[in-house]
Please model this.
Amino acid sequence: MKKITIIGATGTLGLPITKQLTKKGVQVKAVVRDIKKAKEILPSTVEIVYGDVAEKDSLKTALTGSETIYLNLNTTNWDENASFQPEREGIMNVIDISKELGINHIMQIVGIDSSHPEFAVKGMEYKTNRIRKPGMEYLKNSGINYTYFHCSVFLDSFPTFIQGEDFGIIGHHQYPVFFTNTTDLADTIYNAIGNDKVYNRAFTVQGQEGLSFPEAAQRFVNIYNPSIQISEYPMETIKHIGLPSKEYEDFMEHMLTYVEQLKEEQVSQPTWDLLGKPKLTIEEFTKSLI
Model:
């Protein structure tokens, strides 16, 4: 039986990936900070243990017995002077404990921008990489086998753009994006567990079709709810939609501005050759959300 320990199993992307892996028969251990919440939303077959990437002692207890770790953390600010960032110091803590415990393999999800900065046609830097990259380099230099999945934009995010009967796209998005989804990523992760051919390598994770954001949104709502209209709004709209904090508003504006000038090319054939092609069209994945 395949086994994996997931840090970030209750997150927006981590939760559906965890569910898909359990459906495929993987024995999953979830390292979480909120045990009560995790028990409410994770499948009953998942082993749930307490662990905080800020607390090495908790990680040592939580990770004991693990062989393969999947990291699904998220950075929403780029304050390099912060004393602690989950995707920097947090990941370094995981790596330190993993070396102590003799863990064999660590996999991590990151953005496609990390491996292909040339896709940013205006030369923009995705600022969260200022936080993410030191952790990535720390893992590469640790001696632990690593695998990075450099992912395109997730279709899973599309329902969050819907307010009432309006799918609101902020910014002018004209370039192709090879949208992926958590079901196909879970298949990729499944095929990477215990596979020494993925050690010390990075793989891009993209869908098979390159579509602009509006084109993909229209195909999504055609299945999700045909009464929903696609609307495009100027970038300054981000300041008027009532996001929960100024920090998150700044992050969303930066992220959408970056995606606006991201012109992807299809570069995932090596991933498909080793770990399998993505299976779901936009329509097929959308049906799974209904």
